[in-house]
Design brief:
The protein has about 500 residues and is of the alpha/beta class. It has 4 domains: about 80 residues, Ubiquitin-like (UB roll) (Roll), CATH 3.10.20; about 120 residues, no CATH class; about 150 residues, FAD/NAD(P)-binding domain (3-Layer(bba) Sandwich); about 80 residues, 2-Layer Sandwich (Alpha-Beta Plaits). It is built from 18 helices and 14 strands. It has a 5-stranded mixed sheet, with helices on both faces. The chain is globular, with a radius of gyration of 27 Å. The model has no long low-confidence stretch (mean pLDDT about 95).
Length: about 500
């Protein structure tokens, strides 16, 4: 048996154990991308770096534990070494974590997932995806300026996917029951029932916060009623969506104009308050500038604890999607405040970006799509159900299939790694090997961890995966020019589950 200390915690392990295994036994987490239980250490990613008492850095996955070792798994030098390792991997990793349409959308809605569900005829499921981030999809389907379509990669091939009309169809034809959840016991007041206020109230109420919504007017909806022409946005569409939001259990108080004095009294009645009164709103005695009430731009907190402000009361905005997105973000921060979490707001994750498609990549992306151009709607209200399925099928699946579980993304986020730290110049083209019935292999996303090589050898695949080439040009592929369908005949799913990134994924 060997006894050593890791971060001043004493741990005893069997002879032959590695430092990484000793840390795991001590309950100390060390990041790694190329380590896989049951396989020999490969030591290719170098993300598991630690240091000893002398300050020497080494990879913990292959270093044998030794009697009396003093190991440190944090500290500036260790963190910097791990960040550098991640940035070197990112310099060769090609692909988008999130599709460009998602990052361009102020609400960061999962547009590709909506498209895939609509293409499969699953309108109700698609609406659930949309309403997770956008409280009024049908309304936006009529009036949104569609920044998502401007970012669509399909735009450079023929025309962008008609995302806005697809979203409209979700909102008008989809059905989504409001799930009544057990409330937290906390209460919130939202002042102002325009787009930002309606969104804030919706997201709070559906997060189990009992919400009261007030407005000085007799009808909620704010500027949506008078700033949009009837022939642009049918009033019955707006009315239907407002009523759906209220049906979540929100208490509406109309013709209620709250003063600064009343706000002070209301602070005793509610656990938090969100001000969303628009650009003509009362400042309620809070800190202001010419733009409006001063807030933290990430969390929408004002200078008073428990009071948040969002929408045009903080900075004028003409975009309904921006107001709805800000309402959602303020609700997220208010929820964190109410349940005692650290108030960070809606944080963004690391996002790998590959840029515009190369000419040789067009066919690769169309292989997951269809080649016909944008579908023109024939119905006055927008797409028919058949047109929706056809247009949604034009989406090229630009987002990564493994975006939620990719360890490279997780650790790049955790260690603030930069994708551009080591710019190699011209990037490798994306190739999608789809010959296998179950999986897709994208070599440009591969980090050459060797896990698939070892697994296929261990399970005696006929061809398996192997390293091809030498030095900086080495790639992982199937030997003898075979395709992944031939290389992964027996353990395809096991190899996909073991892949730490989105290089090998299920179709």
């Amino acid at each position: 048996m060997i006894t050593l200390k890791i971060d001043n915690t004493e741990v005893t392990v069997q002879d032959g154990a590695t430092v990484l295994e000793a840390a795991e036994q001590a309950g100390i987490s060390i990041p790694t991308l190329c380590h896989f239980q049951g396989l020999e250490p490969f030591t290719s990613c170098m993300v598991c770096m630690v240091s000893d008492e002398s300050g020497k850095l080494f990879p913990s996955c292959s270093m044998p534990a030794q009697e009396g070792m003093q190991i440190f798994t944090s500290g500036d030098e260790v963190v910097e070494a791990r960040r550098t390792a991640l940035e070197l991997l990112l310099s060769e990793h090609v692909g988008d974590c999130e599709a460009p349409c998602v990052t361009a959308c102020p609400a960061h809605m999962d547009i590709p997932l909506m498209n895939r569900l609509l293409a499969a005829g699953k309108t109700d499921e698609a609406l659930t995806v949309v309403r997770k981030d956008i409280a009024m999809p049908a309304t936006l389907g009529y009036i949104c300026s569609a920044p998502c379509e401007g970012a669509c990669k399909r735009k450079d091939i023929d025309e962008p996917v008609a995302i806005c009309l697809l979203k409209r169809f979700c909102g008008t034809d989809g059905e989504m029951p409001v799930t009544k959840t057990e409330m937290t016991g906390k209460s919130a007041l939202v002042i102002g029932a325009g787009p930002a206020g309606l969104a804030a109230a919706w997201h709070l109420q559906t997060s189990a916060i009992q919400t009261t919504l007030t407005d000085k007017n007799s009808t909620p909806g704010g500027t949506l009623w008078n700033s949009v022409k009837e022939n642009t946005l049918p009033k019955e569409i707006l009315e239907k969506e407002i009523q759906f939001i209220l049906s979540a259990g929100i208490t509406l108080k109309k013709e209620t104009d709250i003063s600064e004095t009343e706000l002070e009294a209301l602070r005793r009645d509610f656990d938090c308050i969100i001000i969303a009164t628009g650009e003509n709103g009362n400042d309620f005695g809070l800190e202001t500038t010419k733009q409006g009430i001063v807030v933290n731009r990430e969390t929408f907190e004002t200078s008073e604890p428990g009071i948040f402000a969002t929408g045009s009361v903080t900075r004028k905005t003409k975009l309904a999607i921006a107001a709805l997105a800000q309402g959602k973000r303020a609700a997220k921060a208010a929820y964190q405040y109410l349940v005692g979490e650290n108030i960070t707001g809606e944080t963004t994750r690391f996002n790998s970006k590959m840029g515009r498609l190369m000419k040789e990549e067009v066919s690769e992306y169309l292989s997951e799509s269809v080649e016909y151009t944008r579908v023109n709607s024939t119905a006055e209200k927008g797409f028919t159900a058949d047109e929706v399925r056809k247009e949604a099928a034009r989406c090229m699946h630009c987002d990564c299939r493994d975006k939620e579980d990719c360890l490279l993304r997780k650790y790049s986020d955790e260690y603030s790694a930069s994708q551009r730290a080591y710019d190699k110049g011209e990037r490798e083209p994306i190739v999608k090997h789809m010959q296998h019935g179950e999986i897709i292999y994208e070599p440009a996303k591969c980090i050459k961890c060797g896990i698939c090589v070892q697994l296929t050898a261990k399970h005696k695949e006929r061809y398996g995966m192997t390293f091809i080439g030498r030095g900086f040009d080495v790639k992982i592929g199937v030997p003898f020019g075979k395709d992944p369908g031939e290389g992964l005949e027996k353990i395809a799913r096991e190899v996909v589950d073991a892949c730490p990134v989105g290089a090998l994924t299920v179709k």
